[in-house]
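Task: sequence design from structure.
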C-alpha cells in the first residue's frame, strides 16, 4: 500500500492501515521534521513496529541526508522482531519498486542496511564459540574466556586458561 503523509510517500507492507497506526506515523513524522525527540505509546499488538519502520525507512529514502536511526528495545526478542519486520518491509519495498519498473529505487532499497546489536549469540566473533546455537552456551563460554579470574590465571598458565582474543 502506498499513501502520503504531507509530501512524504509511505510504502506500507499491508493492504490496510489502522487509524491508530496512521496517527502514530503522523506524530513521528512531525517529530522528525522538527529534529526533536518523542515518546509515543500504543497498546500491544497494534502494529507499532511496522508503523515506525515504514515511516522511518520512507523518511530516510526521501531525505537521504537524514540516514541514522537508532532503535532501542529492552529485550533481545524485541530487537529480533524489529529486524525481522525490517527485513520483511525491505523485501516488500524492493518488490514494489520492481513492479513499478523503477530500477533506481530498487537499487536504493537493496542498498538499505539495518544492523542489530543484541547479544553475544549474535555478535560473537570467536571462531569456536560463535558456532554454538544456544545463547546460554555462548554466554557461558564467553564468560569462561573473559572473566577477571580467568584473565589472572592466564597470566600464570596461558596454555590451560585460553582467553578470547576478540575481547578488550
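Answer:
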Amino acid at each position: 500500500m502506498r499513501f502520503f503523509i504531507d509530501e512524504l510517500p509511505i510504502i506500507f507492507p499491508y493492504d490496510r492501515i489502522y487509524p491508530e497506526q496512521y496517527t502514530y506515523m503522523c506524530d513521528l513524522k512531525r517529530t522528525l521534521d522538527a529534529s526533536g525527540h518523542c515518546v509515543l505509546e500504543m497498546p500491544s499488538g497494534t502494529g507499532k513496529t511496522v508503523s515506525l519502520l515504514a515511516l522511518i525507512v520512507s523518511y530516510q529514502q526521501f531525505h537521504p541526508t537524514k540516514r541514522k536511526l537508532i532503535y532501542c528495545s529492552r529485550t533481545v526478542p524485541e530487537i529480533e522482531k524489529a529486524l525481522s519486520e525490517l527485513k520483511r518491509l525491505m523485501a516488500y519495498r524492493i518488490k514494489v519498486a520492481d513492479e513499478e519498473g523503477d530500477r533506481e529505487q530498487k537499487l536504493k532499497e537493496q542498498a538499505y542496511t539495518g544492523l542489530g546489536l543484541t547479544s553475544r549469540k549474535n555478535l560473537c566473533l570467536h571462531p569456536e564459540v560463535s558456532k554454538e546455537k544456544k545463547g546460554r552456551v555462548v554466554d557461558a563460554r564467553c564468560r569462561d574466556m573473559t572473566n577477571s579470574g580467568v584473565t589472572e590465571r592466564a597470566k600464570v598458565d596461558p596454555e590451560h586458561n585460553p582467553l578470547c582474543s576478540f575481547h578488550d
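The radius of gyration is 21 Å.
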